[in-house]
Write a structure and sequence with these properties.
This protein has 482 residues and is α/β, with parallel strands linked by helices. The chain has helices spanning 15-30, 50-60, 72-79, 92-105, 123-132, 156-167, 185-196, 226-251, 260-273, 401-404, 412-422, 431-448, and strands spanning 4-10, 38-44, 82-86, 110-116, 145-148, 175-177, 209-217, 287-292, 310-315, 327-332, 339-346, 366-372, 376-384, 392-400, 453-456. The longest helix is centred in the middle third of the chain and has 26 residues, at 226-251. The chain binds 6-O-phosphono-beta-D-glucopyranose (BG6).
Length: 482
Amino acid sequence: MSKMVQIVIFGASGDLTARKLIPALFHSFCNQFFTDPIQIVGVARRSWDQENFRQQLKNKIDLSLLDPRSSKRYWTQFIQKINYFQIDLSDRQGYFQLADYLREIADGSCQRIFYLAIKPDLFLPTVTGLSKAGLLEKKDGISARIVIEKPFGNNLASAKKLNLELSNLINEKQLYRIDHYLGKETVQNILSFRFRNAFVEPLWNQRYVKLIQISVCENSLVGERAGYYDSSGALRDMVQNHLLQLIALVAMEAPASLEGDAIRNEKVKVLESLRCPTAMGKPEQHVVRGQYNGYLSEKGIDKGSATESYIACRTYIDNWRWGSVPFVIRTGKGLRHRFTSITIHFVMPPHNLFGSWQHKQTQPNNITLRIQPQEGIDISFDVKEPSSPQTMRSAKLSFEYEEFFEHPTPDAYQRLLQDVILGDQSLFIRSDEVEACWVWADSLRNMMNSQPLYNYETGSWGPNISNTLFGDEAFSWVMSVN
Ligand code: BG6
């Protein structure tokens, strides 16, 4: 017997639904991912009906941007699967009506997925409403799954409280805390690159690595999300989740398998080994925060706001593998280019036969994982200049996803939604993981708040002073990728 998959999206009138979730489901539909029938139900407060909702989606989704192989014919079939249900999330009765509606439109056994693309203060009331309406109970051996968008709490105390309250309503195995960075192909490839290539892993430790830098730069400004952003800042919006996830994947030990818990166990160990920022002393050598000029005049921003739109910091992972290797990371809005990259800088050889590298056109070997937008990997190494006995030059081997693979890389949300449907939690954040991230982020916030807030021009690379985070090492920020 085929099992219906019912995907219920709360916050269906928001941009995430139209720009990410519906296109991701549509791609999956075109690629024949669904072997069982599907229904998508958008849930929001607006008094739309099914036709209004479908029309809104059609207006917002640029079909020409979707995979050209997925013909418009599919869209006509797909849109028929989309329904709408109006609800006021604070009205308890509404959840019972929703339950009646969902049962009415799905015949037989059904895998329900509730996607909460809503404000964080509504997470708990919504899960409570679903629970009271009996929508989280196991039926025919199937339990509903809940996907929760970030931010999960805004500090350790609130994240712990939310974890605890949710655990009274739903099992951890049903909960999918999403971080869309984990759905990016290039981010998933970090583990594949490290643990599938025998030449990489033996070098991936403090014996051979001198420093690791990670940049998640954005050229966009806060835009329409000013209200949310001003209460979060770069630390909570980007570092506590996306950057820490990148660090965890770069630094973790090989998991015993690719099972969700095996991977997450290893990530948690790394996150718990992050050196506590407040214990490091000398905050000016470890953290720089900035705000772009013009931030205070953005609509929705408090005029006296001291929220950071840029943060850079130097941290360490106190374990056997990483010892004293600095991890220097930064993220910011209003920067010159949008790009995300991770560079592993290796040590120099123990004996230098070819003169000091500082005075030549060379640099220590490095590997750069280009996460976006030009996805790829660069390996830099030195070669001897022809006809010269000692002169060395840095050369680069580059791998480009776009050239190598026939198909464009799928969007992060596509992979993540498919994993929720398949019940695979490996790319989702576990409760202890989110708490470990907050322990570190809270400590960094305390340290950061004692530091000056540097202004920087939009279109620049942020406060120049952040170069000092490299300390005495002869490194500087990677300025863009390729
Ligand atoms: C989101 C942040 O999680 O990630 C945004 O809230 C940010 O502020 C976005 O712009 C960046 O995502 P991506 O995939 O464009 O790098």
